[in-house]
Design a protein that fits this description.
It is built from 20 helices and 3 strands. By secondary structure, it is mostly helical. The chain folds into 3 domains: about 100 residues, no CATH class; about 100 residues, Tyrosine recombinase, N-terminal domain (DNA polymerase, domain 1), CATH 1.10.150; about 170 residues, hpI Integrase, Chain A, CATH 1.10.443.10. A 3-stranded antiparallel sheet has the order 1-2-3, with no helix packed on it. The longest helix is centred in the middle third of the chain and has 20 residues.
């Protein structure tokens, strides 16, 4: 492996004579099997030589994470003194990452000391099981409710009072404190929903006095008080037409066509597999995360062409069955946050006055386009996978032709 990466005799000799050469060689073979490029393997090999020397590794004993952190900072300071790096953070990050990966591969990274669970962890665990098993909530809702509840408990516990003594005034004080700092009205409203669910559970389980859940109030949110947040369809078409031949842009175009054409949610596209695309019948199947069912759509020419090009030319060869994978090794399914960073650059650079620049904005654009084509709210809701008509009714406010008809209605002598 060293001979493949270092044709020069001096660099090759450095790799061979530095301790733990065989261990470093095995790790590089492992990275090569994962799909790392030759240039990346070259950089990792150089980094591992630094790791061995800074940590003074010679034996096969365990290495503590704190020792890795100390060595990383020392190496960063050396790089700055030698004017080889202007930012210590980059040197620390690279050293720490590859030292940790290599030592873990060898089984030599000492397990960190266990962190004691917070005293309210049993309450959180019980609430999570209640939401999952009794209420059947989606995983995203469980995470959201759990995070808001954990935030409240972390605020309440330092007061040194038993949870049985909690009262509605504590909840009000918590919401007021958050409203004065970082949480918006909508964030507070979401927190109110989470805390109501939590205290309903806590009251039924006998952890606190009854009546708290019913007394929790939050800011008033008016139904449909905001407009849909999608860009105009003409702007979406312009964005879709600007695709380039770069691998990242080919993958981006495939995702953009799915979000814009079908209005899929980001989690639904993230879980799309190769088996969900029927190329012969020109169909695409999507698993609805909220309705817990599967919907089948005809595969449009544009979306099909973008997907086919991505799968044939760009998608890494991997054992993963998900359609969208990371382009850099180690290859793995693209996360929901990865899709956000995939969409945001093309929406934010166009100067569009949007509240959000993620994939959900294209879902709104899809719904608005279907409305302008004359589809009913029922048809639009079915296309988007809505569970209720209320979720689709928000788009009535952008049905400009119908609103103009209302404006032209002659009230005659009614007034």
């Amino acid at each position: 492996m060293f001979e493949e990466l270092f044709p020069g005799p001096i660099a090759l000799a450095r790799q061979r004579t530095t301790p733990l050469a065989e261990e470093r060689r095995r790790f590089l073979h492992h990275l090569k099997d994962l799909g790392y490029a030759r240039s990346s393997l070259h950089d990792v090999a150089c980094e591992l030589v630094v790791v061995v020397r800074q940590l003074e590794l010679a034996d096969d004993g365990p290495v503590a994470p704190v020792a890795v952190d100390v060595a990383a900072k020392q190496w960063a300071m050396q790089q700055i003194r030698r004017h080889r790096s202007a930012k210590a953070a980059i040197s620390i990050r690279n050293f720490r990452y590859w030292a940790t990966q290599w030592l873990r591969f060898l089984g030599r990274l000492q397990a960190p000391a266990p962190v004691a669970a917070p005293p309210y962890q049993a309450l959180l665990d019980g609430f999570t099981a209640y939401m999952r098993d009794d209420q059947g909530l989606a995983s995203a809702s469980i995470r959201s409710h759990g995070w808001k509840t954990k935030t409240f408990l972390a605020w309440y516990w330092p007061q040194g009072r038993a949870f049985a003594d909690v009262g509605i005034h504590d909840v009000d004080d918590f919401l007021m404190a958050k409203g004065r700092t970082t949480w918006s009205r909508r964030s507070l409203a979401v927190a109110v929903q989470a805390l109501r669910a939590f205290f309903r559970y806590a009251e039924c389980a006998g952890h606190c006095c009854p009546g708290i859940a019913a007394a929790i109030t939050g800011p008033r949110l008016y139904h449909g008080e905001v407009l849909p947040a999608g860009p105009p369809w003409a702007e979406v078409q312009a964005i879709l037409s600007r695709a380039s031949d770069r691998p990242a842009d080919i993958r981006r175009a495939a995702g953009l066509w799915l979000f814009a054409t079908y209005g899929f949610r980001v989690g639904e596209v993230a879980h799309l597999t190769l088996e969900d695309i029927d190329w012969e019948q020109e169909l695409i199947r999507i698993r609805r995360v909220k309705r817990h069912d599967v919907q089948t759509y005809p595969l449009s020419c544009e979306a099909g062409a973008a997907l086919a090009r991505y799968v044939a030319e760009v998608r890494p060869r991997s054992g993963w069955r998900e359609v969208f994978l990371t382009l850099q090794a180690p290859h793995r399914p693209l996360s929901p946050s990865g899709f956000y960073h995939l969409v945001r650059p093309v929406l934010s650079t166009g100067g569009l006055p949007l509240r959000h620049y993620g994939p959900h904005a294209l879902r709104h654009a899809c719904a608005t386009r279907l409305l302008s084509q004359g589809l009913s709210f029922q048809d639009i809701g079915g296309h988007l996978g809505h569970r209720s008509a209320d979720a689709t009714a928000v788009y009535a406010k952008v049905d400009l032709p119908s609103l103009r008809e209302v404006a032209r209605f002659d009230l005659g002598g009614v007034l």
